[in-house]
């Protein structure tokens, strides 16, 4: 049995504590250090989770030599610098979503990963629900998919930055559903039309509701209808999904085992596999990829497409027009070159003959 991967975790806040529990439950990893700008917070979190002997620090530089990999659980704005720093030390990275706040930053992170030759993976945890994976298997057996839809209706009172964002639903939440749609459809998104708005009773400053329709390269349409100010009859945090395909229709309520009705009229309820879920699933795939050199789901070249879907939806909502994903990527590529502070990153970006040929659907 191989030695456990020595993990540095960066970030000791609320989500960081969830990751500490996940690391403790995985025999293939061991916590080598906990990093946070607030070292007192890091010490407290480590002690509370049984890691009293684990060192804490304020930067990756202090503990990089003792680690095999990094888990980035910092605030989204810090993801690019944390990931780039870890990669520069030759450490593969598993980053919480989102990869970056903008596609421009995401492309610079793609270049940083290429330069380091190390894995940069994003933890899109909703790809690892057992019921969601069963839903994906059902859809794959139905033949060509005409339409996929997701309804997402919740009424959370977060307080803080989410309630002050211009587009809280699209930017902070919808990437989960957009990314999962990519997995379920298995094709590249081409364009989107989106309308975002804020109901008069909303407690959010920005647009807490949105309707978006994506067109994919294989002709499939994905419709997302959602709201974060929808009290009553709320959906799962995963949303409520329906896929209409040549061989029938598959349905998933977001929590329980999905069901499918075939053209013949036969109805089947899926069996769920015994596999790690949510961030435990992300961590298990990350470890396997680091050890084997295989490419995991949500590797940076792929995940930046999900970030582009969000950015395109926001642009469409602002302009009232259909926005092409290709145009978002191309504009971000040009900006990424112009704003890259690292000359090696800039040179790497400039070496790409066509940004879309470097990325993956």
Describe this structure in words.
This protein is an alpha/beta fold and 361 residues long. The protein has a domain at 130-275 and 298-361: Dihydrodipicolinate Reductase, domain 2 (2-Layer Sandwich), CATH 3.30.360.10. The protein is built from 12 helices and 15 strands. Strand 4 (69-72), helix 4 and strand 5 form a beta-alpha-beta unit. Helix 7 (168-185) crosses helix 9 and helix 10 (325-339) packs antiparallel against helix 11. It starts with a strand and ends with a helix. InterPro entries: Gfo/Idh/MocA-like_OxRdtase_N, Gfo/Idh/MocA_oxidoreduct, GFO_IDH_MocA-like_dom, NAD(P)-bd_dom_sf. Residues 6-123 form the Gfo/Idh/MocA-like oxidoreductase N-terminal domain. This is Gfo/Idh/MocA family oxidoreductase.
How many strands, which pairing sense, and closed or not: the largest β-sheet? 9 strands, mixed
Q: Rounded to an integer, what's the Rg over CA atoms?
A: 21 Å
User: Strand portion, in percent?
Assistant: 15-25%
CATH class category name of the domain at 130-275 and 298-361: Alpha Beta
Pfam families: GFO_IDH_MocA, GFO_IDH_MocA_C3
InterPro entries: Gfo/Idh/MocA-like_OxRdtase_N (IPR000683), Gfo/Idh/MocA_oxidoreduct (IPR051317), GFO_IDH_MocA-like_dom (IPR055170), NAD(P)-bd_dom_sf (IPR036291)
Family: Belongs to the Gfo/Idh/MocA family.
Keywords: Oxidoreductase
